[in-house]
Amino acid sequence: MSKNSTGYFGALCLAVAMLATGCSSMKAPATTDVAVSEAAVGNASSAGGAEFAPVEMRSAREKIALANQAMVAKDYKRADDLANQAQVDAKLAQSKADSAKAQLAANALQEDIRVLREELNRASQ
Fold first, then answer.
1. CA distance 53 to 100
2. Among residues 40, 46, 75, 117, which is most buried (max CB within 10 A)?
């Protein structure tokens, strides 16, 4: 073989290896992504997502259920996509819940400050 032939053969082997890796990853079960997304939904639920972000939580749960169905059907690409979407929805729900709770705490603190000011004004008169 000449040097050019060896170079082409090496490039061809590399391309085939990359193609095989890419194709095999699409056929591999997306169990890790589904599990991570289920954990994210659980965390969002624990953070109050169902109360403060019910739409996002419902969407995340529906997508997890669809991802599990796709896993059973061995449609791993779809399962992976749905799991990732569910994780995003769950993180959004958790962020909304955290934000709402922080706003409630800030409102309570403002009310406490208002009451203290009234008491100080009454005491100074």
1. 9
2. 40
Give the span between the Cα atoms of 27 and 21, in whole angstroms. 10
Task: Give the Cα separation of 78 and 123 in Å (integer).
Answer: 67
Model's pTM, two decimal places? 0.71
3 state DSSP class of 2: coil
Domain containing 48 — which CATH number? 1.20.1270.390
Q: Which DSSP string do the residues of 31-99 spell out, in sequence order? A: HHHHHHHHHHHHHHHHTTHHHH-HHHHHHHHHHHHHHHHHHHTT-HHHHHHHHHHHHHHHHHHHHHHHH
Render pLDDT for 1-43 as a digit per residue (tens, 0 to 9): 455 455 445 544 555 555 554 544 556 788 999 999 999 999 9
Q: How many domains in the chain?
A: 1
